[in-house]
Amino acid sequence: MKRRYSFFVVLVAVLLFFALCATAAFAESGLLQSALPKGAGSKPGDESAFPLNAPVNIDADNLFYDEENGIALAEGNVEVTLGTRKMRADRISYNFRTGEADLTGQVRYKDADEQFSFDRVTLNLNAETGVLYNGSILIGTSGYQISGERIEKTGEQSFLLHKGSITTCPCDPTPDWDFGIRRASVVIDGYAVSKDVTIRAKGIPVLWLPYAVLPVKLSRQSGFLLPSFSTSQSRGATLSIPYYWAINRWSDATVTTDLMEKRGVRPELEYRFVLNQDSEGTISGNFIQDKKSHHDRWRIQGRNTYHSGGWTANAQIEMPSDNQYYVDFAETKAHDSAQRTFMLRSARHTFSRGFVGWSGEEFSHQLGATWVEEMERYPADHTLHRLPEYQATLLPHRTSIGGIEMSGESMATYFFREVGDKAGRARGSATLSRTFVPLPSVSLTPYVSGYALGSHYEQYDEWNNTGRFIPVAGVKTAAEAQRSFLRNGSGFVHIVGVDVGYQHVNRVEQDNMPLHDRWSRIASQDQVVFTISQRLLRMKNAASPEEAASMTLEWAYDFDGKKSPGTPYVDPLSPFVRVLRDQIDIGHGRPVRTSKASDIYGRVAVKPFERWRFEGSALFDPADAMFSMAAISWGWEKDADQRLTLTYRITRELAEDIGTSFVWRPLRFLRLHANINYSLKNSGLTNSYAGFSLIPKSDCWSIGFTAVRSTYPSDTSYRLVFGLKGIGTVGEK
Predict the structure, then answer these.
(1) Which end of the chain is more exposed for a tag (fewer CB within 10 A), N or C?
(2) Separation in Å, CA 592 to CA 297, 523, 598
(3) Does this model's pTM top 0.85?
């Protein structure tokens, strides 16, 4: 059972055991055979009886009991042991009549994770009050150390502190930091309401406060957290005041009030829950009456995962009040979340999705929904919601007919637009395949598939029906060879793989099919795809193999010429090398190219040494003798505090960027971190951040400063982070 009492309750228990068992110990030692208090140990069940067989051991130079005055006394190197607990003192006396206990001379108490040390302790066991003089209490589980010239016990978990200090970094001889306090009312697992407070670093005064409320939390419970501070051009100076609400053992919440200089007051509620080991989630919402735009603005976001047996239920919610919310309010609270902030600000849409599904050995079923929010600067009707969508999947299953494998899926969707036509659609596919192995490391897999789609859609206030069936056939061939260069279990293994696939998609007229997504229309194909891959594995005796280098090349050729599906989407049956080029063309606004030969895609990764890595990828257009896309990166990583990455990216006529991401600790106490991107095409910095952290020797405190520069909107924000171990962090939520 988890202990929730304070150290003073522990002390009372120790003294009570000592008081009740002292007489028994004296009697057993023969010192007080005739000096027991009246009724002591005489009758079972007698309330005044002492447990003579209690597991207590007392060692002292002198043990004495004054029967006339009812005083038990132990002097000289006194040590009381109760199981794992030990108490030491020069002198311990206890008055059975008054309940007064007095411990003097280097009073020490120690348990597994709890200890205290004082010059003197006086307690009244009847009143459960007392005073501790010139010492400290250390709570090992949380690292709290409370020291004082005088500590008065006023309740079960409360006391008054006079001329003392509180820290969570109890270093000898001087804490790295502490709060020097003239007077405080302290409640264990609560707060220390303090007067005349001095924040000290290594004993040197840094800041004085006339009044402060400090957390003294040993367990999870409700209460205010440390506030955070930030500033930006868009929001001005911002003060955030969070309150933590411990609802029950499986859920909690944080209520935060953001006071923004230029925008106003924004309350926010974040609720979190954990249902089982594989099921947890969070949802939050905020609201503000924006002083700058003079509109009510809000945001709801959340996610959850749920697994139980074959059931799964996942959801993601992202719903802002307007398409400029993230531009004005998305804030980077830590350097590792900057990329998430940049993505929100530049997003064209936000998606809220959810589904519940069941999976068996051969089948799976899923029912879901998708809601889309338009985030374009100048909104248009590009939203297409799926309310609801059902999907059933037949997992690959080997039949009893000649080893043929069967798989398939079916889907039914209702497409909904806030403005525009609506439609219902059913889609299904089935595939039969058979794998042959004519030679070791060589496989041949022919297959046939069929894709069927039917739509019931609204157009010009009338409902129409249309459908299609598209047959597909193909074959995949794969071969692999390897050669080892090993000596005494160490060396290299070279693996070469070649894949050749042919796919024929029959031409079917689909002009009457409404456009909803990439499955709306499928282009015909008569295409061969070549893929060559190589891997070089580094072997070290019995250790797991490590990839030292890899390379992949992919190229496709369509004998009838590349066909456009007639939609703004990429064809779902196209190979990757075609899809990548189509995405670039669509992004640039060019018509999809219809050449027979695709571009050539290549990717290479090399790890010549343990900490070094080089990666490169490219999409090369042999017809124009130029790169459609290219990216190279070089990285070095020693540990979390020593890493560097340099990148160069170019996308044909769209973008050309260089960037660096690094964390560097040039000195023991200094940590630099940055993510900087520069657009060569636009000759300027894009979304970037840079900052530093000061890290002390003991890690009991930290100081960090981060500057974030964003281009949309053009804004620079600053954040100062000051953290105290066990207390919290000022500057971050």
Answers:
(1) N
(2) 40, 12, 12
(3) no
